[in-house]
What we know:
The chain has helices spanning 41-52, 92-100, 109-120, 180-183, 185-194, 213-221, 225-249, 259-262, 267-278, 299-312; strands spanning 5-11, 15-22, 27-34, 61-67, 71-72, 77-79, 89-90, 104-107, 129-134, 138-144, 147-148, 253-257, 288-291. It folds into two domains: 5-115 and 297-312, 2-Layer Sandwich (Nucleotidyltransferase, domain 5), CATH 3.30.420.40; 126-291, ATPase, nucleotide binding domain (Nucleotidyltransferase, domain 5, 2-Layer Sandwich). Helix 1 (41-52) runs parallel beside helix 2 and helix 3 (109-120) crosses helix 10. Helix content is 35%, strand content 20%. The radius of gyration is 20 Å and the shape is globular. The protein is built from ten helices and 13 strands.
Amino acid sequence: MMNQYALGIDIGxxxxxxGIVNDKGEVLFSNDFPTKDFPTPASxxxxxxNELNNLAEFNSIIGIGIGAPNGNYFTGxxxxxxxxxxxxxxxxxxxxxxxFGIPTLLTNDANxxxxxxxVFGNAKDxxxxxxxxxxxxxGSGIVINGNLVYGHDGFAGEYGHIRVVPNxxxxxxxxxxxxxxxxxxxxxxxxxxxxxxxxxxxxxLSSIEHPTAKNVFELAEEGDLFATEIVDYTAQILGAALAxxxxxxxxxxxxxxxxxxxxxxxxxxxxxxxxxxxxxxIFKNKIDIRISSLHDRNAAVxxxxxHVFWDLLKLKIN
Length: 318
């Protein structure tokens, strides 16, 4: 594996990050651009190629990994991504392969996060785990016996859209009660407005014009009672949901990723508490709640690059 690298690319609704990564998880080069700078996918392919073509590492890139919303691993297409200007079906894998002449794979961002944790992060000792991404939405990457679960069509692992509250909050998927309407950062903000509490009027949150999930977690640390209620409510719903989800794959751990999970408070401990209170007895005290170790380490780029090393080379990196 000497002098062999992967190009990791993460495509988000707001920004696009990419970088060259070695097999030790070291990012040798990285850059990012606003997604709006690329009106067409072809323009993105050209810009990345032209920027990297003159680098010394370019000829040692063995594969390209791309994480994108609605990315289909089987087809290599982005399919009807609602938050991208590129509409319909975009054959992005094929476009990169044609330009670079390098094997390319495409997956969604939660799957890339799971692969990053297994190869470079906090799941290196695991073969059965689930990564839960807690961001604007809630995503999941399911790993069983060291392999990502894709389902027959490439879209398995949508834990964020499992309905956990009957007739609950309206979701962007046009259904009600999905996990992400409660446990994403946007779900936490909705709880500010929707939870009924005697402490609500006394909370600092009531004086913030546009409060954020970060405000909630910071105020909870400072002892704000209403903010603490919201953090506990979020952990309760997530912990109970993860208890039910364990029946599917019997994971050794859930690895939580995102700003909510990374907060210095006791959120993960609360999630663990509610998981154990709700879990089937045969799974009791068998499942860890871990926090991602990649959050501040170019996680998106590392995740997509890790997928190259693992999937294209079938290499276990120690």
